[in-house]
Amino acid sequence: MTINANKDLVLGWEEWVSLPGLGLPAIRAKVDTGAKTSALHAFSIEPYGRENRRKVRFGIHPIPERPEIEVYCSADLVDQREITSSNGETELRYIISTSLDIGGIQWPIEISLTNRETMQYRMLIGRSALQDKAIVDPNKSCVQGVLNEGAYDDFPRREAPKRSLKIGILSREPNSYSTRRLAEAAEERHHLVEVINTTQCYMNITSMRPEVHIDGRKLDGFDAIIPRIGSSVTFYGMAVVRQFEMMGVYSLNSSAAIGASRDKLYAHQLLARNGIGMPITGFARSPNATSELIKFVGGAPLVLKLLEGTQGKGVVLAETKKAAESVIGAFQGLKANILVQEFIKEAGGADIRCFVIGGKVIAAMKRQGEEGEYRSNLHQGGKAERVRITKEERAAAVKAAKVLKLGMAGVDLLRAEDGPKVLEVNSSPGLEGIEKVTGKNIAGLVIDYIEKYARPMPVGGRSKL
């Protein structure tokens, strides 16, 4: 059978082709105009990427007679379709888009992936791939010449990729820097990623099999989640994380650890009990204790912190005893819970953010407040620079994260005359400032840590693409 063509490209019933987009220099393919779709041999087929950037990776033995040659490829994922083979069997296959090169002429085609290990040809070219590109003469063979399969002799041997993970990022801000970087880092390692709006999730608490749903579908098949829980939705966010944990999904930070870090009073109590240096801190409910609280922290100037405050908000510096008494009284009148804390003057309005992953400080930066500003938070106009931390500062940051049982943490500390003082431990530290200042791929290191501890589910355990 022949196909009308606009080009002077003549093909036989079999041809040597190359797939440059997949890094395959030579494959002997059967040209079958009786078949509509094209097919390529593939094994260990795994999809990955976000909804709008789906890709698939797979392995292939391009030369049937040389099974020791094993190449791993990655391509854009176009679709998943039911394909009926010549023997009448129907199979649901992944469809990829790549480029086909025959006789030096190259054009884009779609190919279905299927295991052709028992087939003589590793690739079948159907009529939809030929379009108007060629004329097929079924009486001829290898009209466009024979490619040298020796091209694989010096082919770089690559180990089979690790099993991909299905990772959920719990975040209400899919376009934030931190969320985007974590998703990109996971995709670069060929993991399937989904950004999940935490507050849009809902759960059947009484179900015998714990489930999390969103937009009418069940969130299943996840190997790991990365909680990016905003302080305003801590209670609900912890409930969602707990539900995933009940489903056996690994969480970078557990719900219990997130809760401990968000409760500033409880966190300070845990840190103090474990001998971690902190600014002297007091807490009281009764207005009658105000004078004693001020004495506890060494008098004015002192710092007042709302327990629910974040990013430097809800933090007040009281420079005199009278000002401190006035602010404490105002907060107590509003039924607000506050901490009264020693002011570390020698810190000079600067603190150090240590980024801890898996018990190691992987990056650190110094944040300096603006002139006359005692708060160093970048959200309050502070500036950051790379810093070399001391052995004592490193140990304090690591121990603080360990005490709160956080796999990932941003530990903020001050440099005091008698050693480092831990200010706060953040369970959802931002990546933008510290990546830009240090030049380190923090997001990639986070994914490395998840790969080490998350257990991928068995192949075939995921019900949907």
TrEMBL record:
Q: Which residues bind ATP?
A: K305, E342, F343, D351, R375, S376, N377
Q: Which cofactor does it need?
A: Mg(2+); Mn(2+)
In alphabetical order, the GO MF annotations are: ATP binding; metal ion binding; ribosomal S6-glutamic acid ligase activity
Cofactor, free-text remark: Binds 2 magnesium or manganese ions per subunit.
Q: Do the record's keywords include Metal-binding?
A: yes
* Positions contributing to Mg(2+) 2 binding: E424, N426
Fetch the Gene3D superfamilies from UniProt. 3.40.50.20, Acid Proteases, ATP-grasp fold, A domain, ATP-grasp fold, B domain
Per UniProt, Mg(2+) 1 binds at D412, E424
PROSITE patterns found in the cross-reference section: ATP_GRASP
Per the UniProt entry, what are the Gene Ontology biological process annotations, in alphabetical order?
Answer: SOS response; translation
Q: Which residues bind Mn(2+) 1?
A: D412, E424
One GO cellular component term, please give it: cytoplasm
Q: Where is the ATP-grasp domain?
A: 268-451
The UniProt annotation places Mn(2+) 2 binding at: E424, N426
Please give the PANTHER family that the UniProt record associates with this protein: RIBOSOMAL PROTEIN BS6--L-GLUTAMATE LIGASE, RIBOSOMAL PROTEIN S6 MODIFICATION PROTEIN
Q: Which family does it belong to?
A: In the C-terminal section; belongs to the RimK family. Belongs to the RimK family.
Protein name (Swiss-Prot/TrEMBL)? Probable alpha-L-glutamate ligase
Its ancestry begins with: Bacteria, Pseudomonadati, Pseudomonadota, Alphaproteobacteria, Rhodospirillales
In the UniProt record, the gene name given for this protein reads rimK
